[in-house]
Amino acid sequence: MTASNAYFSCFPFCSFSSLSKTKTMSILSPSFSTLFPTPTLRVSSSSFYSRSVTASSPVLAVSSSSSSSSLFSIKGEDNASSQKDYFPAKMSATVSSRTFLDAQNEQELLYGIRKEVEAGSLPPSVAAGMEELYKNYKSAVFQSGDPKADETVLSNMSGLLDRIFLDVTDPFVFQPHHKAKREPFDYYMFGQNYIRPLVDYRNSYVGNMSLFIEIEEKLKQGHNIILMSNHQTEADPAVISLLLEKRLSYIAENLTYVAGDRVLTDPLCKPFSIGRNLICVYSKKHMLDDPELIEMKRKANTRSLKEMAMLLRSGSQLIWIAPSGGRDRPDPTNGEWVPAPFDTYSVDNMRRLVDHSGPPGHVYPLAILCHDIMPPPMKVEKEIGEKRIISFHGTGLSVGPEIIFSETTAACKSPEKAKEAYSKAVYISVNEQYNVLKSAIHSKKGLEASTHKVSLSQPWN
């Protein structure tokens, strides 16, 4: 079997007739999109794919007047061709406006929003979201008791509003495989420093640090690692990196996330997404929102799968995916948050993809608890532009032992039973770890919540 056919055989629900003359299969499981949530093939300001930009002038130097100005600096570039992957041609002109970066206080920052609306350069709906986000972020950061909370809020929000405004005036377009933009503006560190003040480190924990170290060692040996995880908030990537950055900066900065189209199109979220390594896909939960776009979305997801297969063939890849296809939400009967059920086919498709990639591959179950920081709406919404509720709170992250398919499914009588058993084993581990984190954080048991399966620590201490 050729390498390409090995890849295609991993996903029997996709149509690869245009890519392979020897294998023709049909798309049919909407769960294909559970695997990924992302990019568009249409060439328009709202699409994720297809970007062709020519920068006409060097990027202007920009720095914030706040105490954290280094977070928002943009380095000058002499070679115009080197800019095109970072900013569209019009970006250099809008950078010089300084509407938000020059704000010295809250009044000037909020006035800047209204001024841009009056000038017709900022849609009123986006402006309303920006103002609401500012107020909620300010409230959350002040909950931390940080004596410099006012400086932190002004610095971080002026930077975010500037990034939102720049993207509204000239939208960034994501490729199927997006690499974090670290220069000339470091979007990764920007995101880290924005979410950091929301994390109560005194009440945050990491489970099984030894397994995270094991994962890093395998990555350096050329192995591929898949983290099958629950998904709670738009801040998940930042929380994962923040809890690991002191001890395991390699993992924190090199994770690739399977990301849905929501975080790639919402103007308030895009600046954070630009700072992450992403495989972009359309979410199962929104695949059928617009019947006219279903086929385009499926083709886009097929393209993203191919990008992931190529990525895995190179080895040393660490990929995070939420097989539920979306964020966790509280049980309507009791209000308790639990990891959303995993889609069996998404788990199996991902496992088979990594197994056929060439380099050794491993699947680890990951649990994250951070919904208090930025809870999603109580129900799935079709429209972009959800209300952002933000809080200062403890968070948790834990990884379980590798789930090995042959060991988990040895007693299964059929392939279907094996798929179900494997998916169930991964989910059970995530759920068990989540309950330990919940006991530590919500029940205030701290490190004493540790069990023989989940050893909690605070690696930043």
TrEMBL record:
* Keyword set, alphabetical order: Acyltransferase, Chloroplast, Lipid biosynthesis, Lipid metabolism, Phospholipid biosynthesis, Phospholipid metabolism, Plastid, Transferase, Transit peptide
Supply one GO molecular-function term: glycerol-3-phosphate O-acyltransferase activity
Pathways per UniProt: Lipid metabolism; Phospholipid metabolism; CDP-diacylglycerol biosynthesis; CDP-diacylglycerol from sn-glycerol 3-phosphate: step 1/3
Compartment(s): Plastid, Chloroplast stroma
Coiled-coil zones = none
Q: What class of enzyme is it?
A: transferase
Which reaction(s) does its UniProt entry say it catalyses? Answer: sn-glycerol 3-phosphate + an acyl-CoA = a 1-acyl-sn-glycero-3-phosphate + CoA
* One GO cellular component term noted in the UniProt record for this chain: chloroplast stroma
Q: Provide one Gene Ontology biological process annotation.
A: CDP-diacylglycerol biosynthetic process
**Does Hydrolase count among this protein's keywords?**
no
Task: List the EC numbers from the record.
Answer: 2.3.1.15
Q: Which Gene3D superfamilies match?
A: Glycerol-3-phosphate (1)-acyltransferase, Glycerol-3-phosphate acyltransferase, alpha helical bundle, N-terminal
The family annotation for this protein states: Belongs to the GPAT/DAPAT family.
Q: Which PANTHER family match?
A: GLYCEROL-3-PHOSPHATE ACYLTRANSFERASE, CHLOROPLASTIC
Q: What does this protein do?
A: Esterifies acyl-group from acyl-ACP to the sn-1 position of glycerol-3-phosphate. The enzyme from chilling-resistant plants discriminates against non-fluid palmitic acid and selects oleic acid whereas the enzyme from sensitive plants accepts both fatty acids.
This chain belongs to the protein called: Glycerol-3-phosphate acyltransferase, chloroplastic
Q: What is the lineage of its organism?
A: Eukaryota, Viridiplantae, Streptophyta, Embryophyta, Tracheophyta
